[in-house]
Amino acid sequence: ASSIADCPIVLRRLLSKQDAGLGCKCVVKIPFVTDLEFDKFISAPRKSDQILVIFVLSSQNPSYSPFLEWMLQSLYMEKQHGRPSPCIQCRCDPYRLLRYDMDSVTRRKPPLPPLLVRKHAVTPGMVLMYAGGKPLFGGCVFNGYGCSKKDLLKQISQARLDCKMGHFLPESFKFSSIPVENPDQDQLMSQQDSVETISEE
What is the CATH number of domain 8-171? Predict the structure, then answer.
């Protein structure tokens, strides 16, 4: 049986009171995770050292790192080959790949910057790594060297080691120096009746 830790799209449908009966359809492309379900999804019970690798992108400015996006998508297809329900069948994998669009269509009351901009001052092209709902890494350079597949996998291995050692980053760690408006209003995002997200699959 599926759980809220499996598919962010199914969880998003549940939170927005849409029909979730279609189940997971994340066979071809890396699934998106949005502000609506982000906190619930990353903190949901799952394999304790499984790393959630989240690629931050901007759909309105897609030219920042086309190679990195292509590399992640190729890696996703390689890992999910032959899996009819990848979000369920990857439960025991060492890591999972996800996407976060800073320009996803949202309506908030009151207006707020995207969740990950407020929490971590993320920028397009950045990759975040979480385990157990806690941040372990954020950046555009992996393994202190580059952005190749080999470097990414080494960074994931390091994140798993950091997780086992309990070496997490502060929950509100900022990965850049961009100005963030209203950083103390994160609690507003937990009020589901004041947040409406139009899902993008």
Answer: 3.40.30.10
